[in-house]
Write a structure and sequence with these properties.
The complex is a heterodimer of chains A (107) and B (269).
Chain A (H helix, E strand, L loop, with lengths): L2 E3 H4 L2 H8 L4 E2 L6 E2 L3 H11 L3 H6 L4 H4 L1 H32 L4 H5 L1
Antiparallel strand pairs in A: 2-3
Chain B lengths: L2 E10 L4 H4 L14 E4 L3 E9 H4 L1 H7 L3 H21 L3 E2 L5 E2 L2 H10 L1 H11 L2 E10 L1 H11 L1 H11 L3 H35 L4 E4 L5 H4 L4 E11 L3 H15 L4 E9 L10
Classes of the chains: A mainly alpha (107), B alpha+beta (269).
Main location (chain A): other
Keywords (chain A): Gas vesicle
Protein name (chain A): Gas vesicle protein
């Protein structure tokens, strides 16, 4: 049954969707523009994309306990980060030209 | 360098930070740990942050740094989860920052009535998020087989001349696809309405594209519900039932919670 306690299984993408307010924070008296949430989640998704690879080396932290282990995981993820940078650049370029094309580029 | 005030959330007055905060947990930045600022009736859980990292210009830059966002946004979320364990909390979105305690106080005083009311509304309730996914292949087959409009269309085609039959059959695929999207949306709306009936408040959100979900299935429903804690089991029962009913059609429903009430803690009236 896919009913989960939020403390155990929150993915980064879920958390970002919830804690970022449609890209703009206006509740405080300092106004901050944060990058488009969708773009941001895609970026972050790419950073943590190789779930399978991470699982191989026992880094399935987002499935077990993202909260306690997020620090450690980030280090591991940095390597993936480099690998994925190229893909991200490509993605961003295509987003700039036509956001609807992303799905195609990613296949 | 100047210090700014980072606001996690608003809580009822009379709480000590030691009962709300895990001392093991690090600060959002540097050494400044959170504390409670009382404003008579309402209180704010805040921390000091530097303009270097959280000022307007710095934030613009840092928000392009995914590792930074990931770390800080998670910290924000974890902090609110912890607060939520101990009291009713009106959670802020990540990056709610004030120039000074004075400007925070001003905001709270201006909106006091609304904030009090919202806190009362949130008491004894929790936010749950429900996402439903559809397997396009399974659902397509279902629609092709069982959809009434598709059936009618097929019968209509059978009555046609050979030449037109050929042309119309070629177009049938597109017709089925259109019916599929209509059905999908109708079912998603039904699910949402049914769950809304078991909650105090609800919000339907934009579906994520596959780039974001990283799944084969299409997201058909993305929604948030404010559920009375005592009624949670009946709410979750609805989800279990719906999933049983719809599993064969290629649906998968996922519920997560309890989240801090991000969707229902509005600052504006």
């Amino acid at each position: 049954m896919p009913i989960e306690q939020s403390t155990r299984s929150d993915s980064i993408v879920d958390v970002l969707e919830l804690v970022l307010d449609k890209g703009v924070v206006i509740a405080g008296d300092i106004r901050v523009n944060i990058a488009d949430v969708e773009l941001l989640t895609i970026k972050i998704r790419l950073i943590v994309a190789s779930v399978d690879k991470a699982k191989e080396i026992g880094m399935d932290w987002w499935e077990s306990d993202p909260f306690l282990n997020s620090q450690a995981a980030r280090k591991e993820v940095e390597d993936e980060n480099r690998e994925l940078k190229e893909r991200l650049e490509k993605l961003e370029n295509s987003m700039a030209s036509d956001r609807t094309q992303i799905g195609e580029d990613n296949k | 360098m100047g210090k700014l005030v980072y606001l996690y959330g608003i809580i009822p007055e009379g709480h000590d930070i030691n009962e709300l905060w895990d001392p093991e947990k690090s600060a959002i930045e540097g050494e400044d740990l959170p504390y409670v600022e009382d404003f008579g009736g309402l209180a704010a859980v805040v921390t000091k942050v530097s303009e270097d990292e959280f000022g307007e210009t710095a934030m613009e830059e840092n928000s392009n740094n995914t590792a930074w966002i990931q770390e800080k946004a998670f910290h924000h979320h974890e902090a609110l989860l912890e607060l939520q364990r101990h009291t009713t909390v009106l959670p802020m979105k990540f990056g709610t920052i004030f120039e000074s305690v004075e400007s925070l106080k001003q905001m709270i005083e201006e909106k006091e009535e609304h904030l009090q009311h919202t806190l009362q509304t949130l008491e004894g309730k929790e936010e749950w998020n429900v996402k439903a996914y559809i397997n396009p292949k399974t659902f397509y087959e279902r629609v092709a087989e069982a959809n009434e409009n598709v059936k009618a269309k097929r019968e209509e085609i059978e009555q046609m001349s050979k030449g037109r039959q050929y042309l119309e059959t070629k177009k049938l695929d597109k017709f089925i696809e259109e019916e599929m999207f209509k059905d999908q949306e109708k079912k998603a709306e039904e699910m949402y309405d049914r769950l809304a009936g078991y909650s105090e408040d609800s919000e339907r959100k934009k579906n994520w594209k596959k780039d974001v979900t990283g799944r084969e299935d299409e997201m058909a429903l993305n929604s948030a519900f404010l559920v009375v804690s005592e009624d949670l089991e009946s709410f979750l029962d609805q989800i279990r039932e719906m999933e049983k009913e719809k599993e064969e059609d290629g649906w998968l429903i996922e519920a997560t919670g309890p989240w801090p009430a991000y969707h229902f803690a509005t600052m504006e009236e």
